[in-house]
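Recall from the previous chapter that SMILES is a line notation for molecules. Here it describes coenzyme A.
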Amino acid sequence: MSARSSFPIVELTIPSTMQAPGAPAFEAMVEVRNRVETGILGSGVLSYSAAELLPGFQNPYKPRRLFVAHDGGNVVARAILSWVTAAGSSTSSVTVEVDGAYRRRGIGSTMLDQLEDIVRGAGRPIIQSSVLHTAHTSGPSVAASSGFGSVPATDPGVRFLISRGYRLEQIKRVSFLEVGQDSRELTEHRKNAERIAGPDYELKLWSGATPPEYLTDLARLKTAMSLDDPPAGLKRTVDAWDEARIIKRDQDQTSSGRELLTAAVLHLPSGSLVGFTEISLPADVGGAAAQEDTLVISEHRGFSLGMLLKTTNLQRLGPETKIVYTFNAEENRPMLRVNEALGFRAVGYEGGWEKSIVS
Ligand SMILES: CC(C)(COP(=O)(O)OP(=O)(O)OC[C@H]1O[C@@H](n2cnc3c(N)ncnc32)[C@H](O)[C@@H]1OP(=O)(O)O)[C@@H](O)C(=O)NCCC(=O)NCCS
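With both inputs in hand, we obtain:
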């Protein structure tokens, strides 16, 4: 508990399951997340249930420490510190979210102080934060160092992070696609992409667990994703995947109630997967689907494989899915070109912030 905030701050033990004793506190933490992010975006589309988020908090490849602030019996703020365990990683990630009614009372500062103190002693001095920001108003804005995009200077998160010495390096666009409106357009885009890709490429589709014959290739592609996603001025962290990590990730998705739809493209002459895309379906039927990673490795770009993968996977969605959302770097023109052609439209922005702590 800190001297600056009069609201007690405690570290939560991450429960092993949603039936374990710590589960109600974990659930209250997730409710703060959903309230704060719904408030920023003006839509609850990005909300997750506690069960869906729990595996992410138990991920041994990306450990997290979790803190909450209380007002009496209520959880009113949350703070998360996470890091990648890969050797040589020098970055830590932080998130601080405070319920609207409890802001400007020092809770956010106290929680961030606490996370920064832990980072200071942990040998990962570069702190990053991915933060949803309110949509643009006509007022002053803060531009990202990447040169692509800006956020309102009056947004509480922007004011808070600038006052703490963080730099806005990158903007990610949050986009929604309303699906099922015009399936002919999707079919046309897919046919066109098939024609450009030609006979050297074959699609492989699966849902849930990755077929054993593709584990090695998918691990290679997921590792490449951590290297290829444009980082702008953010320090890049190589996040290495192997077969065991893919298997664990697949098991976690299933146990959380979500379902992962994967489309991959096999390059027939080499017999290797050279691209993939993933859509994560919510446990709650009818909720929004998340368009997750998409990658085509550099030697195979320019053959419309990104469009082929995305259109094919989107065509697998049932009528219960009405909205798909995705996050893309504002400078990632090749991916945005595909998404814009498919009808994704911007609904919000996420800032990629960074600060280096010198002990
Ligand atoms: C950003 C956030 C965590 C701040 O939490 P908080 O408990 O209000 O923070 P504090 O009371 O410690 O305020 C710290 C400073 O941030 C700045 N700040 C925060 N909100 C502000 C606002 N609406 N207008 C102007 N400055 C603001 C001020 O410098 C403030 O200090 P001051 O109150 O002495 O002027 C909270 O607004 C929030 O949850 N926003 C959504 C999530 C987010 O943007 N998180 C960013 C960090 S990962």
